[in-house]
Amino acid sequence: MLVKNVRLSRKLISRPFSQTLNPGVIDGVSSEWDNALPYSSIPGPKALPLVGNTWRFLPYVGGFQIEHIDQLCKQLHQKYGKIVKMEGLLGRPDMLFLFDPDLIQRVFKQEDNLPYRPSMPSLTYYKHKHKKEIFGEDGGVIAVHGEEWQKFRSKVNQIMLHASAAHQYIDTINEAGNNFIERIEFLKDDKEEVPGDFLNEIHKWSLESLARVALDIKLNCLAENPKKHTQELIDAVNTFFMGVPILELKNPMWRIVSTPLFKKYIKALDTIYELCNIHIEDAMRNPSSSTDENCSVLQKVLRNNNPKTAKNLALDLFLVGIDTTSNAVASILYQLAQHQDVQEKLYKHLVSSKITANSDITIDFLNKSGYLKYCIKETMRMFPVVIGNGRCTTNNTVIGGYQVPKGVQVIFQHYVISNLDEYFPRSSEFLPERWSDPKGKTHNFASLPFGHGRRMCLGKRFADMEMQVVISKVIANYKISYNYPPLDYHIHPMYTPNGPLKFKFERRKPKNDS
Fold this sequence. Notes:
This protein has about 525 residues and is an alpha+beta fold. Helix content is about 50%, strand content about 5%. It has helices spanning about 1-15, 30-35, 70-80, 100-110, 120-130, 130-135, 145-160, 165, 170-185, 200-215, 230-250, 260-285, 295-305, 305-320, 325-340, 340-350, 365-370, 370-380, 415, 460-475, and strands at about 85, 95-100, 390, 395-400, 400-405, 410, 480, 490, 495-500, 505. A four-stranded mixed β-sheet has the order 1-2-6-3. Strands 4-5 form a two-stranded antiparallel sheet. Helix 12 (about 260-285) packs across helix 14 and helix 15 runs parallel beside helix 20 (about 460-475). The protein starts with a helix and ends in a 7-residue tail after the last strand.
C-alpha cells in the first residue's frame, strides 16, 4: 500500500500539463530553441550525486534555512544572476528562479487558458488520494490543475471576483473591525501595550471576517468566549502552512513513510474541512430567501452548484485567506509603527475624509482612499507575505536565452525584485508616495502580491477590503508605536515580523475636522 501511495504521488507530480509558455516550440524544435544555451548551463547550486540539492535544506549541514528563504533568494540572485536553477530536489521537479520582471511578464503573456502553478505534492496527495472520494472532480482551486481546475473556477469566478460580491460585506467587515478595536482595548495593559502574541488576535479578526463570507456564520472570534473550535481552526491553518515548506523541501520522507509531521498536517486539513462541513450543512438546512442579487456568496454557490463545491471552496478560502491577510495586517501595523511620519500622514488623510474613531468605512471612501492603499502596497512591496509564486512549464521552452525542458517549476521571486533599486529607486526606504503616479516607472510585474493572470488570488477583492477597513479603523482610533528593538522578518509560515508584536495603542484625541 505504501509503495502504491508513493507511486501515485510521483504520478501526480509528473503528469503532463496543459500550459504552453512558448507557442513557437513544438516537440522541442524551433530556431529559438536551437539557438538557446543548453539547460545544463543555467547557473545555480551544484547538485551532488544521489542527494542532489535536498541536503542543503537539512539542519546543521545544509546552510539553506527555510525560515530565511528571503535571504537565500537574495544570495542566489547576487551569486548567480537573474535566472537561477535549483535541481536535484527529492521528489520535486527542478526549480528555476526568475529575478527579472521582463522574463516574468513574458511567461504570463504566453500562458494559455489552463495555466499550471508549481505543484504542492502534500496537498495534492490530500485532495487526490487521502480525500479522493470527497474532492473527486470538484477539487477546488489549490493544488488542482488543467480542465479540473477550469471547471471548478468557472463555477465560482463570477461570484467571487465581481466587485459587488465584496461590497455587500462592507457592514460585516466594519463590524469585525469594531470588534477588533474592542479587543485591543480589552488586551491593553497599564502601559497601553498588547501582549506579544498579538498576531493570534489578528488571526482571530481575519477568521471572523472570512467565516462570514465562506460559511455565513458569526464566530465571535474576538469575544471573551468565542464559539467552539475557533482557536482549533486557527491552529489547524497554522499547522498547514508551517508544514508545507518542511514537507516539500526540508523533509520529504513522507513520500516513503508517514512521518509525525505529515500525520499532523493531514489531521489539520481534516479539521479545517470537517469544521467547514458542519457550518455549510447548517446553511443548507436554513437557505436564504433573498434574491440572487442580495444573498450571500455561500448561498449563491449553493444555489448554482452542488454542496461539495461550496465545501471545497470554503476549505481553499480558509487555507489561503486567514494567515495571508492577518500577516499582511500585522506587517502593515508594524511598518506604520516604525514610520511615524507616514502614520501621521495617513491619520490626517482619514481626518480630511471625515473618518473618525466611530466611523463606518464606506465603499465610497475606499474608492477614493489613495494614501491608505499606497501604505498597503508599499508594505506588500517590501515585505510580501508570499515572497514568490510561479508557473510550471508544459513544453520545452526558452526562458532568458536558455533551453528549459517541460516539467520545470518557474518561480517568480517578487520579494527580491521589488527590493532592488533597479526597479524601485531607494527601494530600502518605506515610501508610500511612490505609488501615487499611475504613469510612474514602476514595472508592472515587479511587485505582484496577489499574483497575476487567470490564477490570480480568488479572494483578492475581499482581502483588499478587509485590510483597508481594519487599518482605517485602527489608525482613526490609535497612535501606534513599537518601543522595542527592530524586528527582522522570517517565514513563519507567511513572511512576517519575527518577534513579539507588543504594539502600544494610544487613544487619539479627536481633531476638529470642521
